[in-house]
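User: Structure with flavin-adenine dinucleotide, tokens only please.
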Amino acid sequence: MSPAYLKLMRYDVVVVGAGAIGNNVAYLLAKKGFKVAVIERKERIGYPLKCAGLVSERVLELANAKETVQNELYGAFIHSPNGNTLDIESETVKAFAIDREKLDNVLAKRAMDCNADYFLKTEFVGIDRKNDFLEIKTKGEQKVFHCKLIIGADGARSKVRKILDLPPPSEILACVGAEVEGVSLDPRKVHIFLGKDIAPGFFAWIIPTSIDGSKARIGLCLKIPPPKPLKTYFDFLFAHPVSGKMLKGCKITNFIRGLIPIGLLERSTADNAMIVGDASSQVKPLTGGGLYFGLLSSRHCSAVASLALEREDFSDSFLARYHKMWRRDLQREISIGLKIRKKFLKMSDEDIDRYLSHLNDEKILSVIEKHGDIDYPSKLIFPIIRHLPKLLPDVLSLLF
Ligand SMILES: Cc1cc2nc3c(=O)[nH]c(=O)nc-3n(C[C@H](O)[C@H](O)[C@H](O)COP(=O)(O)OP(=O)(O)OC[C@H]3O[C@@H](n4cnc5c(N)ncnc54)[C@H](O)[C@@H]3O)c2cc1C
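Assistant:
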């Protein structure tokens, strides 16, 4: 017999994780009239912060959330390990700094307005398969959910993915950062720092988040396990000859910590189950950005989920349509990104200096300004080669 305190609830779909992607899937399904529960282990949606909040216009359109924009960005300073700087500036807006906590809440509110039920401080711990439904178990077992379909949107270390025995990402990066105020930055440009002293295996960033340049989000990502403790790298941002000067005297107002999954999953569905967003490693391997790929995939996920609910077909073979749909959209970009990343991981600081010095040429910079796209960095490869044919052998060795 069930204990007296146990609360049993029946839903069409249980979404695990109230991040941006889980909230969007919940909204799209609830809008169609399906009974949706979202379970989230944290007590506050979007907090603590684990995102730098740098996105393209596509994200604002997919999320329909222009109200989250804090600042418009027109370019970047890329700082190479030897101290040289590539200055890229476009006449048009290339990216936006957004309030990520607000984005998650805007999307959650939209789902709630369509009658999705939210259960905060509710941690998913397991699934029991019954004859024609799933029993979703939560920590402490005060709440049990019965549903036909579970959607894991529970981030890089997805428990849903693990329990379903779906493949993990090939790599998970550790990130640390902060929101700061009291800086004096060019508000139109992001700073990217490369090199093994500052962010071995990835990069560090300073993103101006206010139009007067007085606020920023700073941070870096590293391969796990990092050569030194994460905090050592975070502290170095304040001691580095370039970033240190920019951050001198600033005040930290909020800390950022998180993980980034990297890889191309071969499966993202099982019987009665789908995974989406970071849980499904729908992330750009070169920048770690996951909001665009995740939001795009959330549309495919909810479209296939709603068809499955209408037809009462929750077999893996039916749900795998979703896998094919997101792979069709993202496979090329993720695969090229992974190949470039593999090469990047083998580069010394001197190699990085050499590549960046090739790019520091007026013609090449204008190509980057024209074709640069934070969602599809691979679009730059061929225009750059046209102007810099000596890179062709490197590119061919990357792609084939
Ligand atoms: C430091 C950092 C900077 C980043 N910067 C950018 C950027 O500038 N631009 C960009 O596009 N992307 C960026 N990303 C990536 C982006 O944040 C992710 O791709 C995005 O958050 C994915 O959203 P999601 O909803 O899939 O997962 P998440 O946002 O991770 O949400 C998952 C949710 O599931 C919950 N959860 C986990 N396990 C359970 C459980 N067992 N039970 C219940 N709930 C659970 C978590 O608490 C969380 O709320 C960054 C990531 C990091 C770490």
